[in-house]
Predict the structure.
Amino acid sequence: MRLGIAISALLPVAVLAQPFEPTSQEVLSCLVDPSRRVLVASAVPGLARRVAFERGDLVKLGDVLLELASEPERAALNLSSERADFARRKMARNREMTRNQLLSAQEIDDLRTEARLAELEANRARVELERRTTHSPLTGIVVERRVTQGEYVANEPFAELISLDPLHVEVTLRAEAFGRVQVGMQASVAMAPPVGQTMVGRVSIVDRALDSSSGSFRIRVVIPNPNLATPSGVGCRVVSVAPAGG
């Protein structure tokens, strides 16, 4: 029993999170960033047949952004699909002969293999055609367009997208505030003009190491922005941080 008491006394005791209202001297910087920033490129090079977006557009996950010229790929798909259909019809015509054991095992295997290979070739052609179309990897805003219709698209990104729901508020605090902010705490953040309102989010990241050169550490606050009314790039100020539900 004494040993158990001694060991328990050595174990770290969880520190309960306390409300924290950082002063302007404790907050070195506060900036609202997108939660995701993606450079979009085509899987294959080719001639841009249709560009389906403009800078500033709202795009949704899966929306078509770019279509490349694909006449050879469509022709290859039509040919391979016809071959696969012919192989299926051939199998159907010989099904009765197979049941009556009028075909040898080798002939049956040849028919099945021919049908399977034709189906695989059709699938490969379908994938090649699908790669000529690029879809949006997220729901967000187009901040840059780098391609026009008729332009040759290589491996370089042709668009930049950002996701504004949620927002990431990146905050740099002085080292003196270390230990006062914990992951999961609720944070109130006052947005600078032109937003000019206070928004509430959750602390998702707290650096575990201090920056010795600046005597600071960083935290991240995740703020829901379902209507995309708040833009990224605005300044902000952390008003308070408190335990969730507090």
Summary: The first strand starts at residue 27 and ends at 40. The first helix runs from residue 2 to 10.
